[in-house]
UniProtKB/TrEMBL annotation:
Residues 106-271 form the Aldos-2-ulose dehydratase beta-propeller domain. InterPro entries: Beta-prop_AUDH (IPR054583), FG-GAP (IPR013517), Integrin_alpha_N (IPR028994). This is VCBS repeat-containing protein. SUPFAM superfamilies: Integrin alpha N-terminal domain. It holds the Pfam family AUDH_beta_propeller. Keywords: Signal. It comes from the Bacteria. Coiled coil: none annotated.
């Protein structure tokens, strides 16, 4: 029987702070310690510049700009060598209508940090497919990481038909200026949009969930190679996903959250162990494009935060928080985090001020802004 958590659930309180009101696209965000001061910074893929904002004074620094002719699209940041500072990879040349010509569509670069990270970083060009869209660093061993790169389309693919999407996994060489080995770890999906790294069983390496046209594909790294999960290669099938994230209810019952379909209007939840159990939490978004899960309220169960970028039927854009009303997720309610001032392209979750409460970071293209929503829940502020 589901136990109500309404009595224990405090009223969500978030305080918005605008970091930048001149954002051009803000299409991708990442969080990590750039300067080694042990505080998480914010990194962003803006139209022609990859930038970072220093925790504390939130000053903006350009890492590299004008990397390609077309717009920037994604960024991944992770401390992969244990020195307390993130390594950074980026994707650019965003041209989703060109699925065949790699000179006109897609790019992947690793950025070599200077001694002073506020100065220009050195890009190293890696192999790429057309329509590179999202990327993540994924831990594959005690001291090893792969860079997973996800195109939107398969090469030559038109309207989701044709060749499958080549999901790429890069190995990090000892000399990052040298050749980067890579492999195609999956080519079964025909449009993909985002991915999630998740350790479902408390073990490393983590699972990789990829959301796209055919559903959510599940990959694992075992015995030195990536492979589809042999017991259950699909976490969800026959539902188109634009965004996919994972969370848990009190008692560690796992769930998958999604935005459906791609650039869709619905926020959905699936039981990880019983994916046929699908709940639609909202059908009112327009171009849903950002998603995250965390326990913002300290209830022991994760909540879901979702953002959309085009005006809905009430002519509003924004960010909402979806709160489970029991420890099994049988019922939910939603509250506004941002009511019509954030046309959300991407969001991240991090405890930026180390108060033990996760904060929300969001970027908007049509609203031209980057904002922190400081989690003040329970403080009375």
């Amino acid at each position: 029987m589901a136990t109500s958590i309404m009595a224990q659930s405090p009223t969500p309180q978030f305080e918005a702070q605008v970091l930048d009101d001149k954002v051009q696209i803000g299409y991708g965000l990442a969080i990590g310690d750039v300067d080694g001061d042990k505080n998480p910074d914010i990194l962003m893929a803006d139209k022609k510049a990859f930038v970072w904002y220093r925790n504390g004074d939130w000053k903006r620094f350009v890492m590299v700009e004008n990397l390609t002719e077309q717009d920037n699209v994604c960024i991944a940041a992770q401390d992969i060598d244990g020195d307390g500072k993130v390594e950074v990879a980026v994707g650019a040349q965003w041209n989703p209508g060109e699925t065949s010509d790699t000179a006109k569509s897609g790019s992947v670069h690793y950025l070599i940090r200077p001694s002073d990270p506020t100065q220009t970083w050195q890009p190293v060009k890696l192999h790429h497919e057309p329509t590179i869209h999202r990327m993540r660093w994924v831990k594959t061993g005690n001291k090893s990481f792969s860079l997973i790169v996800l195109p939107l389309h398969g090469k030559g693919n038109k309207d989701g038909q044709g060749e499958g999407v080549k999901v790429l996994a890069f190995e990090v060489p000892k000399n990052p200026k040298g050749p980067w080995k890579y492999q195609v770890i999956d080519q079964s999906m025909h449009m993909t949009h985002n991915l999630q790294v998740w350790d479902a069983n408390g073990n490393t390496p983590a699972q990789l969930l990829i959301g796209g046209k055919e559903g959510v594909k599940r990959l694992t790294f075992d015995k030195g190679k990536w492979m589809a999960n042999s017991a259950s290669p699909w976490a969800v099938q026959q539902q188109s996903f634009g965004e996919v994230r994972t969370g848990s209810f009190k008692g560690q019952k796992k769930f998958i959250a999604g935005i459906e379909p791609m650039h869709g209007n619905m926020v959905t939840v699936y039981s990880y162990d019983a994916p046929a159990n699908r709940q639609v939490l909202s059908e009112t978004m327009n171009q849903g494009h950002a998603l995250g899960c965390a326990d913002f309220l300290g209830t022991g169960s994760d909540q879901i935060v979702a953002g959309w970028r085009n005006p809905d039927k009430e002519n509003k854009v924004g960010v909402k928080l979806y709160i489970p009303q029991d420890n099994a997720g049988a019922s939910w309610k939603d509250v506004w985090i941002d009511d019509n001032t954030m046309a959300c392209e991407d969001l991240q979750i991090a405890d930026l001020n180390k108060d033990g409460k996760p904060d929300i970071i969001a970027a908007g293209r049509a609203s031209n802004n980057l904002k922190i929503y400081w989690n003040r829940t329970g403080t009375g502020k």
